[in-house]
Every structure is written in C-alpha cells, then in structure tokens.
Amino acid sequence: MKILIVGNGGREHALLWKLRRDAPSAQFFATRPNPGMAPLCTGVDLAPTDVDRLGTWAEGEEISLTVVGPEIPLARGLADAFRKRGLPVFGPTATAARIESSKAFAKDLMERVGVPTAAYRCFRSWSDAEAYIQEKEGPLVVKASGLAAGKGAIVCQTTEEALEAAREMLEGDAFGSAGAEIVVEEFMEGEELSVFGITDGRHVTFLLPSQDHKQIGEGDTGPNTGGMGAYAPIPIATDHLLDTVRDQIFLPVLDAMEASASPFRGVLYAGLMKTADGPKVVEFNCRFGDPEAQVILPLMDNPLLELLVAVGRGGSIAGTRARWNGRSALNTVLASEGYPGSYEKGKEIQIPGGLTDQEDLLVFHAGTREEEGRLLTAGGRVLSVVGLGNTLAEARERSLAGAEAIQFQGKTYRSDIGWRALESEETPAEGG
Asked: What does CATH list as the number for 2-93?
C-alpha cells in the first residue's frame, strides 16, 4: 500500500506517526516533509498546494490513499482533482470545504438548518458593519470570513475594539483577501471543546474530544494563535453532550450538504462552546485540528487508517466506532518569539539526545528545517511536545519537562495547558 500525506506541519507529522503504526509495511510519502517527518517517509518535492502536479505524480506512482492535512489544498480543489483521476483521497471537495474557507457560508448554513450558533451578521462594506456594531452592546467577536491560519477571530470587549477590528479587516487589509468579508457575532460564554467527526457524508464516527488553547498568553490572554497546546480527554465531553452534538449539529449539517449536492466526506471539525443553553458552534473546519490531532491520535487504540481508507474510497463507515486506550495526552507548543505577530526564523534548536526515545514523550515538528546538519526554526509554531500519562497531571508533567529541555533562542510557550481540567473534579467520559 502506498500512502501520500499532503502537508508538512505538526498535524501531518502526527498523522504520519499514527498511520505508520497502523500499517508498518506500507510505503509513505509526504510533500516536502519537515525534519521530523523525513526519516519516516519518502519526500515529494511538490508544494501541498500544487494540485495538478500532485495529481499527476500520485497517478503515476499509483498511490493507494492520499490524506490531505491542511485546509488550503482542500479549498483549492485537491480532493476534486484526485477524484477525477480515480485516486482515493481523504478530504472534502472544494465546495464542501467552504464550511471552513467561508465563515459566512458556514454561518448561513447553520442558520438555515437550525444548528445552534452565535447570532451574527456578515458584511463586505465598512459603513454597514460600522452601523451594525454601533447598535450593539457588550462583547462582540469579529471574524475574517476567509482562511486566516486560525488567527482571524478577534474577541472585542468594547464597541470601540469591535469597530477597530472590523475597520482593519475591511479597509486596512489586516488579513488580506480573507478579511474582504467579515462576520460579526455575539460573544458566547462557556467552555470550548473540539470534536472531530470522521464522515462518509451520511454517517459520523467521533474521535476523542479535546480542548485547544488558542490565545498566546497564560490564563487565555492575548491574541489568538493557531493553537498553543491541547489535551484529551476532557471532563466536559460527556456521552449526553456528544449525543446532542451528533443529533443537533453534525447530522443536520451533513444532511444539508448532501441535499445541496456537496456531500462532506473527510473529517468535519466542530469547534464548540458549551454554554448554559447547550453546545453551540464557534466554527467548523474541514480537516484535522492542529494541535488537537497531536494529542488525540496517540490515544487511539484501533487503526485510524481503516476509517480513512473507507471514506477515501467512497465507502460507508456506518456502525464503526473509535476505541481509546484510557490514558491522557497533553501537548505544549513551542513557538517563536513574537508569534502570532512577526517573528524571526533560523534560530538553532537543541533537542537533548534521548529525549524523543522516552516511551511517554513525543515531539512532533511543525515549523522546522535542516541546514548543514543543524535543526533551525522555520515557522511561528516550531515544535509540539506531547506528554502521555495515566492521568492528565502525569501527561502535563512530561510535556512540560520536554518543553523545558528543548532550547532555542526566543522559545515561547504556555505552562498552563489543561488548567481547566486539572482544576475540575468531574469525571472524563470517552466519546464514540
């Protein structure tokens, strides 16, 4: 079996790690793999977004399954191009991927089918947005509708902050074309969770829910990032909550997309808020989350590959269920100084010998490169340090020990990942 992974970040490193464990005899390929991925696969010197050339290469190589990691190749139609060539691919079409590439589309879809989410309005005109925001009281969230690498949502405590955020997107080019249309929505109170559903377009199999920490600063302060760490399992993900999420969120959305001739086949990621009125959707993504994938996949007991192959080949996953090993995982993201704003690259990274040989510690590369035998920083998020344990406290201790041991100039990370669960006395429940 030949498996191609499109992408080269921390999420793709985790997918490669898991799929190699599922199929040790398979041949693995990846697009321009990072230094952590490179020893585990054969590199393909094509950009993840080079849709046509990747299709030609995969067809010539007779690739058995392509797994698409990032959202941009999906939004540009990689899955469409591969399916036209008869190549099995795990990931939605560009039309279905609009659920992430256009927040306005996603919000309109949810409103149409009655999926619980924050009240909102969409705008392309600054004057219209200004008038609407001036009428509102209390906190608002201003979001770039397009793809903004997880950094396009700004929580605004005051009307003035909301006006500034909207103006910078619509008139100041804050997020480029991603901010040409914005969503202004009410601020939701509650606790966030991430739920991934593997879906064949009709049926859905949940993976273990997790919780991401988006903000750069301790105690969830500062600007949003692509994610500074995550953990699983999470206390708030009870079986009752997940039944509600399946019945009121996932199935109505999947039914609506199939009815509109754009069925969603792949992994549908729901970023949710557990509010006093029940779970509400913060956002949808059309791919595995990063850094959530890095903590979910090491806890999975049965093969992920079986689900991906079934969906990628156009089959059904009805009746399938993911199994978990009962342990906990927590990851700490090591970022470059200045992230999520501007930052310098090319800082030498020192990973102590033997650190990655520990049974309960995994280091996934996100933004790294090699030059003349040296490992260097090459992105805002550099490494994802995953601790595993029989308890979340054990997992956190191992993750932080690994994060502290790795050195590079300007290393930035949060030491409080998982703080909500560690303060909670609730009992975690597994999803299925």
From this structure: 3.40.50.20
